[in-house]
Amino acid sequence: MGDEPVMATNDDASECKRGAVQLGYWEDKYISFFVKQIVKKAPEINRGYFARVRGVETLVQKFLSKSGSCAQIINFGCGFDTLYWKLKDEGLQISNYIDVDFPTVTARKCYMIKRNKQLLDKIHGEDGEVRLSSTDMHAGNYHCIGADMRNLHQLETKLSQAEINFSKPTLFIAECVLVYIENDCVNRLLSWISSKFQSAMFINYEMCNMNDTFGDVMLGNLKARGCNLAGISCCKNLETQKLRYLNNGWLGSNAWDMVQVYHDLSETERHRIEKIEFLDEQELLVQLFQHYCISIGWLTPEFADVNCSGGF
């Protein structure tokens, strides 16, 4: 079965996001260009995606506030994520943005960008040139590249084609990506980043606290769909999430389960989204939040305080 079930998780996540956006959990003018189908999900799933999107984007903003316009962003396992266009709308200047995923996924993303004027207009550089292959796109400061993260030689070659600069502050984002990759490969990737980049931060969103009955059910559901959770041992708890960075040459790390992330979001925003749908089972939401987390790692001291101390 190979990587196909993992690639299919992109479609599921994108449909969930489109459904939550449609209900008003957050604004995303671009998700509808990538996802036509709207699937109705349970309220706790929608709140989970809301906390995930808000948590990650808040940390992205904090990184950019420290790095300024010379920042680079590399979005691993990007799927149909629309972060580049949202940052553009907010007027945030970055020097380079690179979406990375399996070539099969990036081929679809490039095709959708090419055929939607609203997406294409946002990525044009000063010269207006868009360079396209069947799986890759290069336009202005936006790049979408097909690469297997387990193959570091291929990844480095593709990043070079996307004009990566190893001396500029770089943010890596991975959402439910590393858990599908063998630990040895993840360790090599994190070690490669820490040795190649002068200044970097990594944001990782995925499972944690998986050693209980609720975790077993989650794992069973994913395995039933053919998803091989090769990196699940690092999702044991928050400590194993943090150690992964420290064991591979990173200066520091931190991690929070989604219960904490959700409660660190502004009270106004929480009250707003809690009115969208009635949630009968509060306990189920808490259980769900306890089994996902956001972890960060940093290579240089200036990113050490980019965490939830100031609130998500």
From TrEMBL:
Recorded catalytic activity of this chain's protein: [phosphatase 2A protein]-C-terminal L-leucine + S-adenosyl-L-methionine = [phosphatase 2A protein]-C-terminal L-leucine methyl ester + S-adenosyl-L-homocysteine
InterPro entries registered for this protein in UniProt: LCMT1, Ppm1/Ppm2/Tcmp, SAM-dependent_MTases_sf
Name of the protein: Leucine carboxyl methyltransferase 1
GO cellular component terms attached to this protein's record: cytosol
Pfam families: LCM (PF04072)
Lineage of source species: Eukaryota, Metazoa, Ecdysozoa, Arthropoda, Hexapoda
Role according to the record: Methylates the carboxyl group of the C-terminal leucine residue of protein phosphatase 2A catalytic subunits to form alpha-leucine ester residues.
Stated family: Belongs to the methyltransferase superfamily. LCMT family.
Enzyme class: transferase
Keyword Transferase: yes
Ligand binding (S-adenosyl-L-methionine): 52, 77, 175
Keywords, in A-Z order: Methyltransferase, S-adenosyl-L-methionine, Transferase
GO biological process: methylation; regulation of signal transduction
GO molecular function list: protein C-terminal leucine carboxyl O-methyltransferase activity
Enzyme Commission identifier(s): 2.1.1.233
